[in-house]
């Protein structure tokens, strides 16, 4: 089995979880007897955080190292390069981390996506808005490719559902004051505000909302799913919803055991990259067992037909290997804690709407 993972350069720290999860999966699988009665030898190559190296490195894994199984590299740009190398040689590649729209534009036959694509990040917010009867939406996105893609797809999906979503307002990563955006949301009489970005972006938005004494009926800020958001704004975090692709406490199948074993081995909690790497190993193992062979066409057919659940959630792909089963959860801050409110199968609490006006809020622990 082969993979290319940054072990030097500016992405090495971000990709560490991917490498460590693959090593954990290898160890556990070998301890359980391996695959098809054979132990797994894992070869990890370093692209030095330079995506353009990945084509040559995956060709090396295929042609020189004779790897039977391939896991994709770290990030969407590197995955696009690796996918071209694997597809051209009709070799199965499990895309462990690539989520960008460009990966869904290619009619792959041998590349299979494990993580939820960015296109699905707004699905939970839209589902809740529809059920709550909110149809006027205001969308903002931090000025980076991932946030913009998630927001634009959410707007397109909203229109397909008959919801009214204005053009996405793109906000600089340096923005701390959302006065202009609040004015636009008020003018549109927006009922739900859906924002894509990190925990600091979510915190800056909530601070601005409170300062302006403005509260939409529903607030979903992607970064509010991060524990740092609560640390940044304290009790003002209450009732905000966030978008959560992974957490060690996610109630997906096998996740509690994975998180426990990962922390025991590496003295750290698994992050998203770690969960993606472990899920990729899970999917390859499931395909090998289903196919009963390392033949690439049989593995391709097995991954195409497979419907199961990984630590990231459901696995189901479309005709071209794009992930259509996994979707990030939606959490809401209630009582100072993040609780899952969507999807229903994972929910530990019912969502609380509308998002309260600032004048109606009471300190946590307050008794009448």
Q: Radius of gyration, Cα only, in angstroms?
A: 21 Å
Strand content: 15-25%
Question: What is the count of β-strands?
Answer: 15
Number of domains: 2
What's the helix and strand layout?
Blueprint: E1 2-4, H1 12-31, E2 43-45, H2 54-63, E3 70-71, H3 76-88, E4 93-95, E5 111-113, H4 123-132, E6 136-142, H5 145-160, E7 164-165, E8 169-171, H6 179-187, E9 192-196, H7 199-211, E10 218-221, H8 227-233, E11 241-244, H9 255-266, H10 272-291, H11 296-305, E12 308-310, E13 313-315, E14 329-334, E15 337-342
Parallel strand pairs: 1-2, 1-3, 4-5, 6-7, 6-8, 6-9, 9-10
Antiparallel strand pairs: 11-14, 12-13, 14-15
Helix pairs in contact: 1-10, 2-3, 7-8, 10-11
Explain what the structure shows.
The chain has 368 residues and is α/β, with parallel strands linked by helices. It folds into 2 domains: 2-118 and 250-315, Rossmann fold (3-Layer(aba) Sandwich), CATH 3.40.50; 122-244 and 328-360, 3-Layer(aba) Sandwich (Rossmann fold). Helices cover 38% and strands 15% of the residues. The protein has 11 helices and 15 strands. The protein has helices at residues 12-31, 54-63, 76-88, 123-132, 145-160, 179-187, 199-211, 227-233, 255-266, 272-291, 296-305, and strands at 2-4, 43-45, 70-71, 93-95, 111-113, 136-142, 164-165, 169-171, 192-196, 218-221, 241-244, 308-310, 313-315, 329-334, 337-342. Strands 6, 7, 8, 9 and 10 form a 5-stranded parallel beta sheet that branches. Strand 12 and strand 13 form a beta hairpin. Helix 1 packs parallel to helix 10. The chain is elongated, with a radius of gyration of 21 Å. The model has no long low-confidence stretch (mean pLDDT 96).
